[in-house]
Amino acid sequence: MKHIRTAVLAAIAAGSLALTACGGGTPAGGAQSEGSGEAKPVTLMLNWYPYGEHAAFYYGVQEGIFKKHGIDLTIKAGQGSTKTVQATGQGQMDFGWADTPALLANVDKGVKVKSLGVYLQTTPSAVQIFKDSGIETVADLKGKTIATSAGDAPTVTFPLFLKAAGLAETDVKQQDLDAAGKVAAALSNKVDGLIGFAHDQGPTIAAKSGKAMTYLRYADQGINFYSNGLISSDAYLAKNPELAKEMMAAVSESFTAAIAKPEAAAKSMEGKDPQVPDHAVVLEQWTQTIKLLSTPATAGKKPGTNDPADWAATIKTLAGAGLIGEGSDASKYFDSQYQPK
Q: Among 42, 83, 94, 153, whose Cα sits 20 to 30 Å from the Cα of 30?
């Protein structure tokens, strides 16, 4: 899409980076100014085990971007966005990387967290099928069995996706499985496809099966909502507002750097965690992630720059799917003061 190409080119042109070394650490307070020779330990919990979407974080650590911003970053694996939101809200982590629908649902349940900015602004939600399956359009899903995961955003919004394409929810059989079970069912041909993040599971399944994948994307049917972004607890933000601004700036700069050098960014993940996929898969996952980093409203702007209209559209879509209540304002979930400058 044109806005994606524009955003990528603008990010690549964002400027040169000051590069130094960086290490790991544990939670602490505010950021030091650049050149102080000190960096504050900060923890970040991912939404899942490390995969290609996270390349920017590892590349930013490798290239000294976080340390330049006074941050000594330790990256922790996650086990789902809901657990990341809750761990961050409870102060077990300084920052989290989590899916926006999980953030919104947990805030509505009383978890005291805020989004500092969403990076994956085009939803990666998609029905994923083998290219040789004979399924080419959403209409072809009628009578098919699709693996889903009850409660996650792609499953909750699946009826909206089907309706937009002229199908009823009852036209498609859903088999409820966990994340690993969905992939296993697809690989063993026990289902006709699965619902999930196209930039994550799709490349993994293609590598394991040796077969090409194709995607029926929610966004292509006009069903779009914010996905993964940076979060922190209300308590941590109140105590560390300047560090939070530096963290947001460092993440945005790391994404810009990783967009410019995708091969190097993917390589920076090697050996960092036993769950990291093979390099070719990581590279494909990161390449696909780059396409999700903007909407028409944010094309050409720094990664992590959010538009009020996109927040409003996300809230409206998720409320329409029954994931959150009607009528909420974005300020309940998002604090705009941390946006990249």
A: 83
